[in-house]
Structures are given as structure tokens and as C-alpha cells.
């Protein structure tokens, strides 16, 4: 492997890593700002501990918690509730004027099925001084795992901003610039490589001889039908086999893989839709044979035989009274075709390949 390719792979890997780091930071930063505002994220409402009143219970200042719905709250549970003593008796409660507190339940009161809770900061000496109705309790407070706590908290610091965003972006920009310079240098150079494999050009006769048995059988049926017409003669060129009546065009045959292509001397615009012929009149090679029918099945073969008769009728061709006998050997091997010149081999130095471009002929 060339050094330039190895270097490019290394640069690409480093660039992908930096890009992933930047994405991670952006996610952490976005989530952190959402959590600071007490917004909902992934179906959970989050909040940030703003004081040290719950340090004794492991809830440190700036720790992030999410609120878990709880139908049963007991003594010892840590809950999130609205702290607004002046609004507890009001008819219209305004959440915007209340602050969210995270404290521990130290007592539960049940008055005819209506629960209220006495709360206290575990690090405070006294409780909060009043019972909070369940109407103002949002749920239990659950700490995020320590790993996520550290990521979100670090992302909000000046150091986190530099390490996770500014530096990776600068490195990524530098790597992209270096990659661009390398590409521009390579574009200026002309890279020519000799293609190692051998190419073969097959004539029509070779393609027919190397075709599968069912293709050969259909070909023989077509040939037999064509030769039933008086003065019909065929000529095999490198690309096609062409049938004419005198000098008038009749049918041209080509074989491509598992398909026999028949070109008829008929106007494609006057053909029935069931034949699904393809108009070739815009191609100079097929100006005299503008209607193409692809034969891949026995039904298509029946259509081809019908079109042969229609072409003959349209051009006034007449069938022979005595059938013409013919014999064709279709059992040639690849080596025999190559030896007889029906398959041509291109030498290894006959063509070059330009990187990222088309073949360039060797004109030496």
C-alpha cells in the first residue's frame, strides 16, 4: 500500500474522531442548558441542585436530577416540589413565581385521603416549617449517573468549552486543509498505470457459439424461417448477421448474453403494442432496420416469427416452393474461436488506465 493512501486513512480516522468529539460536546452543551432551565428532555423533567442543603444525602450543589413520578411517597424519600408559601392558599397558582426545591420528606400527614409532607434539607438543622400539599409535589428526585453528571457539568465550564469545542474544531479545520492540499497536488500529476489483465473482443459468431443451448436453438428456428424466402441470403460481419432479399434489407440479428436482438425492416410506429419493439431509427447503424425486438423467451420467439412474416409481406417477399437445406456447426470452443480470429485478444500494453479517468490508448 502506498504511503499516501496510509496517510490519508490515518487523517480520515483522526478527523472522524474529532468530529465525533465535537458532536458529543454539542449534545452535552445543549442538554446542559436544557437542564439548567428545568426543561423536559426525552420525556423526563430535569433540574439542577442549586444549594448545599442536601449534601448529607449525597445531593451535591450543581448535581443534575430528573423527576420520577411517584404515587406513594414515604418518609425518607427525596422529592421535588414548588416552594411558594404565599401562593399555597391562592386559587390560581403561578408556577413562574415559585421556585423548585429538592428536600427530604421527614413526616407524612393524611387528612381524609389528602396527603401533605413535611420536608427538610438533610444538611439543615431544622425542617422547612410547613407541610407541602401533594398538589405542589412534582415527584421523587433521582440523581443522574455520575458519568453523565461529569460530562454535562464539564461542558459548561470554560475549560470544557475549550477542550471539547474550540480545540477539536481547530484541529478538524487543519486536517481538512491538509487533505485539500494533498488532493490538489495529486490532481496536478498525471498518473498512468498499465492495466494488467487481458481483454477479449468477441465477434457475433463467437458470441453465438459461446451462448447457451436454448439461445442456439432459438437462433436456428429464426434462421430456418428467414431462409424459406426466395433469394434470401445472409452475411455475417464482426457485429451482426444481416439477411437481405436481393439488396433489400430484411432482418439483422445480434446476440448479447441470453438475449437475441432482432432488427426488422419495419416502421416501429406501425407495429402493434404487444410486440413491444424499440425504435432504433435515430441510430445510423440501424437506419434500414429501425424496429428492435428482444427475444428472451419462447413467447418472444413466436412474436419474432410473426414479425418476420409481416416484414416479408410489407416488402413483397415471396417464400420458396422448395425448402432450402442448410447446416450450421454451433459447437466451437473458446480456444478454436480465438485461434480462428473470431475472438481478438488485446495485448497488455495496448491501453493505459488513468486514475479516475477513461482508458487512454497507447499510440506508441
Quote the distance from N terminus to C terminus.
30 Å
Strand content: 25-35%
Major sheet characteristics: 8 strands, antiparallel
Please provide the ordered H/E string of secondary-structure elements: HEEEEEEEEHHEEHHEEEEEEHHEEE
What is the total tally of β strands?
Answer: 19
Count of the domains:
2
Q: Can you list the strand order of the major beta sheet?
A: 1-2-3-8-4-5-6-7
Keywords, separated by commas or semicolons:
single chain, 364 residues, alpha+beta, Umud Fragment, subunit A, Aspartate Aminotransferase, domain 1, 2 domains, 8-stranded antiparallel β-sheet, 6-stranded antiparallel β-sheet, 7 helices, elongated, disordered C terminus, transmembrane helix, Signal peptidase I
Task: Summarize the structure in words.
- The chain is of the alpha+beta class and 364 residues long.
- It has two domains: 42-155, Umud Fragment, subunit A (Ribbon); 204-346, Aspartate Aminotransferase, domain 1 (Alpha-Beta Complex), CATH 3.90.1150.
- It is built from seven helices and 19 strands.
- It has helices at 3-36, 146-155, 158-188, 204-209, 213-226, 298-315, 334-340; strands at residues 40-41, 44-48, 64-68, 78-83, 99-111, 114-120, 131-133, 137-143, 192-194, 199-202, 232-236, 241-245, 248-256, 259-264, 278-279, 291-295, 343-346, 351-354, 359-361.
- The strands form four sheets. It has an eight-stranded antiparallel sheet. It has a six-stranded antiparallel sheet with strand order 11-12-13-14-16-15.
- Helix 1 packs antiparallel against helix 3 (158-188).
- The longest helix has 34 residues, at 3-36.
- The chain starts with a helix and ends with a strand.
- 20% of the residues are buried.
- Keywords: Membrane, Transmembrane, Transmembrane helix.
- The chain crosses the membrane at residues 12-36, 151-178.
- This is Signal peptidase I.
